[in-house]
Amino acid sequence: MAPLEHNELTTRLEGGDWRIEGDAIVRDLELEGFTAAIAMVNRIAALAEEANHHPDLLVHGYKRLRVTLSTHSEGGVTENDLQMAERIDALV
Question: For the chain, which domains are there?
């Protein structure tokens, strides 16, 4: 699956919570606290295992979570990343 063109990606992300950073899309979440952040990591991990498509997850500032999606083997954001982003959005 080839990476999406920058213009298409920009259009598809418009008005949403995801942004482009380099060859990835990123969403930052602020949760109720550390336990809630870890619970969200676990929920995202379950989705990722189901889809066999794994985001980078960073818990920082005790209640913040950064989710980064990219298809490393393709060198950019693919349709799989956008599908995973939609699944993550449904959890939030």
Answer: 6-91 (3.30.1360.20)
